[in-house]
Amino acid sequence: MNGQLDLSGKLIIKAQLGEDIRRIPIHNEDITYDELVLMMQRVFRGKLLSNDEVTIKYKDEDGDLITIFDSSDLSFAIQCSRILKLTLFVNGQPRPLESSQVKYLRRELIELRNKVNRLLDSLEPPGEPGPSTNIPENDTVDGREEKSASDSSGKQS
């Protein structure tokens, strides 16, 4: 053998659970839906529990996610492509983020908030601390239209 893998006629499954993507060569294309679910539980051991409700979807030629509900859906998906790209949804949604990812995202969001606050502070005219009372009539704050203080009592003298 020359060191090359013979992938002719084989099916490749690329399965994604959250951010984790696995590549699995399949020799038997007559795989059933139940066998696929068991395979996913083995491949994503520790992340996918046997009592989890798993929904498996594949990407079709248009890039749409199509649900695989049974073995006939799986057969059709296999006929469409030699590389079957699967996305797994657990209990109705992709697996929640790991706690380390949540901590990282929280830190990033706090940093962004601080940058936005510094930018807003730098736009304040000098000598006028706090929010400006001269907001133009059409500016919005928190998605609501705000009127300036002079508009609420008629013309300011």
TrEMBL record:
Gene Ontology BP, a term: COPII vesicle coating
Regions annotated as coiled coil: none
Source species, domain of life: Eukaryota
SUPFAM superfamilies: CAD & PB1 domains
A Pfam family annotated for this UniProt entry: PB1
Recorded GO CC terms: cytoplasm
Residue numbers spanned by region Disordered: 120-157
Molecular function terms from GO: identical protein binding
All residue ranges annotated as the PB1 domain in the record: 10-91
Transmembrane regions listed in the UniProt entry: none
Record-linked InterPro entries: PB1-like, PB1_dom, PB1_TFG, TFG
PROSITE patterns according to UniProt: PB1
PANTHER family, A to Z: PROTEIN TFG
This protein's name: TFG isoform 9
Source organism of this protein record: Pan troglodytes
